[in-house]
Design brief:
The complex is a heterodimer of chains A (about 425) and B (about 375). Chain A has about 425 residues and is mainly alpha-helical. Chain A has 19 helices and six strands. Chain A has three domains: about 50 residues, no CATH class; about 100 residues, no CATH class; about 220 residues, MetI-like fold (Orthogonal Bundle), CATH 1.10.3720.10. Chain A starts with 6 loop residues before the first strand and ends in a 9-residue tail after the last helix. Classes of the chains: A mainly alpha (about 425), B alpha+beta (about 375).
């Protein structure tokens, strides 16, 4: 055997004298290319529909734009002139700034951008939207060559003399901005620099904590309800367990909207559950919906299969002889479960927990419909910013924060439990 | 707690029946007594009830009827973890999330033994199966044979008086299996423990056991030491199941004491020993071991009946020759001859005459 292996300087050689590694690579190349060709459609699909939009979103959260134009491109002269001005001086900007504004504003008016510009600044300093809208036609009538534009502006609206308005414009004179992220973290620029908002105005922190907290509660509820079900399924003979598994999956065949609406009917003040409650002799009706409790109940139900399935597939692989062995060695049922069965199901708990938690954190429809005022999630706020408010930058920043938070939790989970301990089947 | 009348019996099954569905009995009227220190094997084809018996003894199945006693005390209503019976499972059932040492310490921990005592017993048990240096490994890092040893050590580490083994060597290759057969019997005898061993491998049963209980159809067909089981099977099932066996069918022609003559369906007449036939005219199946068939007529008594045979196939197996013959209408009559210097090697097509000692040919139930 040994004399057939030819080596040169410690490198294994194939029969034709080429290094064995190279020869092996060549033999495997065709296989690799074929494998790549097979996954190419999916890869392309993911690139186009997932990676690109996420990149776009991440970018949008820092881009300082009005529509498709960067603010410094819309207000080129103002940006240059404002460089000289210091808001901390306590004085309104000099005449040159007003002249620049007259030129840029007219150009923006012609491109129908001035209202969008006002709305854009309004996200940060309320009041600017109406100022820009009102000033539209009057500003275009001004003569940029006249020497007294500052007074003319103040005549149109005295708010043109407000320092915080000009400070907002100056703060947004770059192509990129962190202002959206400041807003997402409940911070704002003031004349004294960046500060957190008043505690009772910190909407997003509260929403983020609520989203994570409720998701955790929902995950624990699905675990508590799903674990015994999965165990039962794994323990039963195949025919019965298949039937029960279909029952577990049945909710998937109904529209999410229908299921959530069904919960509305069941849980509302004049609903079935409250009627039974009164019939049992209790006096007060329970408020089970349009609050956090309603969200927990409905989402636990909706996400339950995502906990049961990974648990089931892991439990299915644990032979019943382990429990028998533990008992034959002298363990009571409880000890056998805790020391032998439960530790072997942790990969399923990890997988199910991670799946349910991440799905819950991003959930939208159910909190929207049954959450009421104190049961909404951060995704509801993101949706509001996208649609009603049109503040795409803030929505993107909030989305980015969520993405980072989830990735961080995933990282912590990996450090604590180990992701290779997660088993989906 | 009533002490059994049967002194010296350690494990007892009394009129035990078991049914899973309420319609058929998997175990029918099982009676069995085992003295302390015995190595007893339950042997039988799958579905014969042997594993069910073992599971009832371990406490994982309840007897539908009858009583199971351990050391004179009825254990029907004692849960498995209080029976103190060691058990080795078919797939070893080593806990995958624990190291070998933790696996072994488990029965000691649940018995609340102190740490130093635990460590000492674990070490002794590992040394017993020659796995002393493997305490820190996980079961998945061990080979099948090593896992088998650990499973054995774990079943013995808490010093049970009774150990049950459910086809423990089924997953091992032939060589390792033979080695472990020897190892298990050595350890069992050294420790003086009582062992109930379940297998469907008859070689394993014969080489390891003090006594073998042959199961079929929910009943013990024969309970005897290995040599008796092989040489004196009580019925045709046992004769067929244990070892290789030639059978011929016929009717009892005459019977006197421990001799009878049988008229085969082919018309030939042979000598046999009546075992469970009683009168002339009974249908019978006679059983002759391949190595007890004589092809040298000079070695038989003058009045012995012989049969004509034609050699169909000659197989050289090293230590023995295996020859297939056509005899009295059947084509799978096999004889085995030792590969000795003076042994004849039969050629296919050769016509010979065969016979046997009457006591080697057992006339059994048909």
């Amino acid at each position: 055997m040994a004399q057939n292996d030819s080596t040169t300087g410690g490198v294994m050689l194939a029969a034709d004298g080429t290094p064995l590694k190279k020869s092996l690579d060549r033999a495997l190349r065709a296989q690799k290319i074929r494998a790549l060709a097979l996954i190419a459609p999916l890869l392309l699909f993911i690139l186009v529909s997932f990676v690109f939009p996420i990149g776009e979103m991440l970018l949008r959260s820092v881009q300082n734009t009005v529509g498709t134009d960067y603010i410094p491109d819309v207000l080129p002269n103002v940006v240059v002139e404002l460089e000289e001005w210091d808001p901390a001086s306590g004085e309104a900007p000099p005449e040159a700034v007003y002249r620049a504004m007259a030129i840029d504003f007219s150009a923006a008016f012609d491109n129908k951008l001035h209202t969008q510009l006002g709305r854009r600044f309004n996200y940060e300093t309320p009041g600017m939207s109406s100022l820009f809208r009102k000033s539209g036609r009057p500003v275009t009538k001004l003569d940029p060559e006249s020497g007294n534009l500052k007074e003319a502006f103040l005549e149109i609206d005295k708010d043109w003399g407000r320092i915080d308005y000009w400070a907002t414009i100056k703060a947004n004179s770059g192509r990129y901005t962190i202002n959206y992220f400041l807003a997402a973290f409940d911070a704002e620029r003031t004349l004294d620099g960046i500060k957190l908002k008043d505690p009772d105005e910190r909407v997003y922190q509260k929403l983020l904590l609520r989203t994570l907290g409720l998701s955790l509660v929902i995950t624990l509820c699905t675990l508590a309800l799903g674990y015994p079900v999965a165990w039962l399924l794994a323990d039963l003979p195949a025919r019965t367990s298949n039937l029960l598994l279909i029952l577990v999956l049945l909710p998937f065949w109904t529209s999410l909207l229908v299921r959530t609406s069904a919960w509305k009917i069941l849980l509302q003040e004049q609903g079935v559950i409250n009627d039974i409650w009164i019939w049992l002799g209790f006096e007060d009706r329970l408020s089970l919906i349009n609050n956090q409790l309603g969200v927990i109940i409905a989402m636990t139900h909706i996400l339950l299969p995502f906990m049961v399935l990974p648990l089931y597939s892991v439990m299915k692989t644990i032979p019943p002889s382990y429990l028998r062995a533990a008992k034959s060695l002298g363990a009571t049922n409880t000890v056998a479960f805790l020391r032998v069965y439960f530790p072997q199901t942790t990969p399923g708990i990890g997988a199910g927990g991670l799946l349910v938690f991440i799905l819950a954190v991003g959930y939208f429809i159910t909190p929207e419909l049954v959450g009421g005022a104190d049961g909404t999630f951060i995704s509801n706020r993101i949706y509001y910013q996208f649609s009603a408010s049109g503040n795409w930058g803030l929505a993107a920043a909030l989305g980015t924060v969520m993405l980072v938070v989830v990735l961080m939790l995933y990282y912590i989970y990996d450090k604590l439990v180990g992701v290779d301990n997660v088993k989906l089947g | 707690m009533t002490k059994s009348a049967n002194d010296g019996a350690f494990v007892e099954f009394e009129r035990v029946q078991k049914s899973y569905d309420g319609e058929t009995l998997v175990v029918k009227d099982l009676n069995l007594t085992m003295p302390k220190g015995e190595f007893l094997t339950m042997l039988g084809p799958s579905g014969s009830g042997k594993t069910t018996c073992l599971m009832m003894l371990a406490g994982f199945e309840t007897a539908t009827h009858g009583e199971i006693r351990l050391d004179g005390v009825s254990i029907n209503n004692i849960p498995p973890h209080k029976r103190g019976i060691g058990m080795v499972f078919q797939n070893y059932a080593l806990f995958p999330h624990m190291t070998v040492a933790e696996n072994l310490a488990f029965p000691l921990e649940v018995r609340k033994l102190g740490k130093s005592e635990r460590e000492e017993k674990v070490k002794r048990a590992l040394d017993m199966v020659q796995m002393g240096s493997f305490g820190g490994r996980r079961p998945a890092q061990l080979s099948g044979g090593q896992q088998q040893r650990i499973a054995l050590a774990r079943a013995l580490v808490f010093e049970p008086e009774l150990v049950l083994m459910d086809e423990p060597l089924g997953a091992l290759d032939k060589q390792l299996r033979e080695h472990m057969q020897f190892e298990i019997t050595r350890i069992a005898h050294n420790l003086g423990i009582t062992t109930v061993y379940v297998t469907h491998d008859q070689t394993e049963a014969l080489t390891m056991s003090d006594r073998v209980a042959v199961f079929n159809d929910g009943r013990i067909q024969q309970l005897a030491p290995p040599d008796e089981l092989y040489e004196a099977p009580q019925n045709s099932f046992v004769a067929q199941f244990i070892g290789e066996n030639n059978t011929l069918n016929g009717v009892i022609q005459s019977i006197s004491g421990d001799r009878c003559t049988v008229k085969l369906d082919s018309g030939d007449v042979i000598d046999a020993k009546p075992v469970n036939v009683s009168k002339v005219g009974d249908r019978t199946q006679v059983s002759i071991r391949p190595e007890r068939v004589e092809i040298n007529k000079d070695r038989l008594s003058k009045d012995a009946h012989t049969l004509k045979a034609e050699v169909l196939e000659f197989i050289y197996m090293g230590d023995i020759f295996r020859t297939r013959l056509r005899v009295a209408g059947t084509e799978d009559f096999v004889i085995k001859t030792r590969n000795a210097p003076d042994q004849v090697r039969l050629q296919p097509g050769q016509q010979i005459e065969i016979g046997w000692l009457a006591e080697d040919c057992r006339a059994l139930d048909a």
